[in-house]
Write a structure and sequence with these properties.
By secondary structure, this protein is mainly α. It has 9 helices and 4 strands, in the order αααββαααββααα. It has a domain of 156 residues. β3 and β4 form a beta hairpin.
Length: 242
């Protein structure tokens, strides 16, 4: 018999239509992968002894956690870009008046702005790492721990540029030391694509992306058996731990 199954796919021709069944979903059911996924999913929930409400609350908690880590990564990127862009490390005209009332203009670095940007960098780094290293997502936490190791390998150079390391892994800025340093020393560590800061920023960005992906992978079906608002395929039910 030639049975018409077209009604299963809704009114849209798009394979990613949230109003009906997708061709990818039909293929997953036909080859048995959907059934295996559902059995594994509900078996896990049964073994954990959690109610639907508890699972929902846990999912919401993890989603908030991963979203916060992603947001903190974005904030770090903004503080890092202030140092990486180079504007802070350009000589500026500074006019001063001496004791005789004579004005003199010289080219100087704005050390106060550099110190302020470095403090923002240290704070945003600490805020980000305090969450990322304790993440419930193994991939995010592992990447964050790797960054801790990388920071340790930079210890000598960063210390020379005015960064202080605490035993708990946090960092701070030695303002007195920075004010005495040659600006070129600070610039080598924090400015440009070859700087240590650029490599650190790249790692933070990768961790933020992993956290964002983890948040998206928490999507699934809602109580009515329809797609959740941010779920577009069966694959969204699968996370990195399955």
């Amino acid at each position: 018999m030639n049975t018409d199954y077209s009604f299963l796919f809704g009114s849209s021709n798009s394979g990613n239509d949230n109003s009906g069944f997708s061709l990818n979903d039909y293929a997953s059911i036909k080859n048995g992968s959907y059934g295996k996924l559902m059995k594994a999913y509900y078996k896990e929930q049964k073994n954990e002894g959690k109610t639907a409400a508890e699972v929902k609350k846990e999912t919401q908690t993890k989603g908030a956690e991963y979203s916060e880590i992603s947001s903190l990564a974005d904030k770090f990127a903004k503080t890092a870009n202030k140092l990486l862009s180079g504007d802070l490390f350009e000589l500026k005209d500074v006019t001063k008046t001496d004791e005789n009332g004579v004005e003199n203009t010289t080219k100087e670095y704005d050390k106060s702005s550099i110190v302020s940007a470095l403090k923002d960098f240290a704070k945003s780094y600490n805020d980000f790492m305090s969450k990322a290293t304790k993440s419930t997502n193994k991939n995010v936490a592992r990447r964050a721990e790797n960054l801790v190791g990388q920071m340790n390998s930079y210890f000598k150079q960063l210390s020379a540029a005015g960064v202080k390391f605490a035993d708990d892994g946090t960092i701070s800025i030695d303002e007195d030391k920075i004010n005495k340093l040659d600006v070129d020393t600070i610039k080598r560590a924090f400015n440009g694509k070859d700087s240590m800061l650029n490599q650190i920023a790249s790692k933070v960005s990768q961790i933020g992306t992993a956290a964002s992906s983890a948040a998206k992978n928490l999507s699934g079906y809602n109580s009515k058996g329809s797609y959740a608002s941010n779920a577009t395929s069966i694959g969204s039910l699968i996370n990195g731990e399955v």
